[in-house]
Amino acid sequence: MYKPFLSLVAATVLLAGCETKKSETKETLGDATRDTAVMARTGASADTVGAKMADAAKGAMASAGAAISNAWTVSKDKLKDVKFTEVNLPGVTVRGDGDYNVYSVDEAVLFDTNKSDIKPSAAKALAQITGSIGQRFAKSDVRVMGFADSRGDKDYNKDLSEKRADAVKNYLVATGKIDAGRVSVEPMGEAMPAASNATAAGRKENRRVEIAVRNH
């Protein structure tokens, strides 16, 4: 009479022990719930890990949003050619819309091949551009963008486009009297070609510096 009873008690205790051990050894994030507050292998509870992941996601979204808000839509296919009477030299064109205006300057006007020092002969063209910006967009933000064709090393082209954009920015600030706080630089390298890189004429058009102005 006592034997079956004791066996039943022993089985019950053993089963309870197994359940307790199973509860104590939960270690995956899937097992960790608000009720158990089980610690993951990292030493953090599921709630803590989840909160950190949420914060990281928010940070990534904020960075992406900042990048988008900082982007200027000034590609050639988005803006129409415009004519400013004060800008009339060969190798310099202007395009724009209600949000942006862009002064595009051929490489040959500003630089020798593979160089980032502004040529003395570029002074007149840059004087026209800075004069036009002062006349029409005296308080607007300005962005100088350097472009290259697709020949040669991609990193080299990006670096050269940055040095050229920096050189033009420094010229605008020092000679054109544009407040440095208004002027930013964006090295584009081979991105956003204005023409096909398959021809010499297209590559020539792609090697340029653009001075963009945001109208508001």
TrEMBL record:
Residues 98-216 form the OmpA-like domain. It comes from the Bacteria. Keywords: Cell outer membrane, Membrane. It is found in: Cell outer membrane. Its main location: membrane. PROSITE patterns: OMPA_2, PROKAR_LIPOPROTEIN. Pfam families: OmpA (PF00691). The keyword Membrane applies. This is Outer membrane protein OmpA-like peptidoglycan-associated protein. It comes from Hymenobacter caeli. The lineage of its organism: Bacteria, Pseudomonadati, Bacteroidota, Cytophagia, Cytophagales.
